[in-house]
Amino acid sequence: MKLLKEKRKIISMAMIVICALGITGCGTKGDNKGVIDPEKMNKERTNLLENADIDNCLSRMLYYDGEKTEMRYVDVDKAKELYEEIANLKIKPLPLGRVSEIKTPCFGIEVKNDKYGEIELTYYDGMWLRGTVKNVGTEEHVKFEHEYELYEADYDYMSAFDKYKMVDDEAEEYISKGGVGMPNAMLLCNYNAKFYREVEEVIPSEKGGVSISDVDLNKDDEIAIKIKNDGNVDYNLLGWSIQKKVEDKWVILPTDGMFIEDAVGRSIFGSNEETFKYSIRKYEDLGTGKYRVVQVCSVNSQDFEVAREFDIK
To answer: Which residue intervals define the domain Bacterial Ig-like in the entry (predicted)?
Structure first.
């Protein structure tokens, strides 16, 4: 377990270094909103894990039952067996348009590739969606891009989910609502709203004298959030997010796991109004629709959220 934790630490540091080089964004090959060419066929690939850094990667298995996602780390002593099992599957290419058939329950696995990116696999009813992240920029100006391929091959994913998980007393398993944490969720949400995570709590526009007075969105780069504090208390600004209204419900959008959060060490002082800029590179093309930006504020270990709606036309 100690070795696994050290391995996670090394990988996390590597990702921080990569992002520090200047990630400029991530996108999907295809049409707007991540919608791919339905007639496009895959490359002549025979191995779902081609280019995987099998000896040095850290993998996670995920299972989404339609309501919640369970994540399990792969047992390091069994990892190679799992990779070989998947790599040896006899796969046949399918038209990418059939990605719309992927529903729940589904299984997924994440593997680091040899380009400091990820290979994301999602399995449903004999279909494998393979998503890859690669650097299409330079070493000095990194830019990540997503590509997707669809294949056919049967697999007993529930058996693998139990067989290859860590089983010691410190095994880490996580359960979260919705399917936004699943591999390839950025694409899958565009075809099946079931993969979104619904926001159940009501988020006010003002609390404790704090509100978002204006939002200015540059879809290619950043969002500028003007925060107003009419009170006398200073608040720390923690995480932020963009949520979308889908089928009359607010949902949490999937984000790119390669992105390092930039909302650190910021504050809004009492009786003050200030604009804060955040990179939106953790999201894919937001597309048209109704959105809201949510800002988390904190004081004395007490957190709360405020939101402001905006439209993209």
So the answer is: 218-310
Last residue of a domain, one of 192, 220, 243: 192
The percent of residues above 70 in pLDDT, for the chain, comes to: 76
How many C-beta atoms surround the C-beta of residue 247 within 10 A? 8
Q: 4, 23, 80, 71: which is closest to 281 by C-alpha?
A: 23
The CATH number of residue 273's host domain is 2.60.40
Largest CA distance in the chain: 65
Q: CA 80, 84, 88: angle at the middle one, nearest 5?
A: 175
Residue 118 lies in a domain: yes
61 touches 86 (CB < 8 A)? no
d(CA 204, CA 227): 14
How far does Cα 74 stand from its chain's mean position?
A: 19
Position 61 pLDDT exceeds 70: yes
The CA–CA distances, whole Å, from 32 to 237, 239, 285 equal 32, 27, 7
